[in-house]
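Reopening this one. Same input as before:
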Amino acid sequence: MNSFKQWIIQRAEDDRANMRLFSIGAVLFFFGLGLVVFANQRLLPSLGQELMVLFGLIIGGIGALIALAGYLALLLSRFL
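Same output, byte for byte:
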């Protein structure tokens, strides 16, 4: 438990890396969102469209989690 606390404190001190993590997550999220919108507006209803939407949702979900981790680390750095 003590090493986890040290890891959190060490992670919170690196604002630049946390901002980079947030930015990368946001880019991935919006790329995935763009794939979903593109597939729904430009492709005919088919298995290919559904697979592209699924791929976009997976990328968007991963990006959202990465951005959330970066944002929480930035928020934590303000409290510490």
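So the earlier flakiness isn't reproducible anymore. For the record, Residues 15 and 74 are 6 Å apart (CA to CA).
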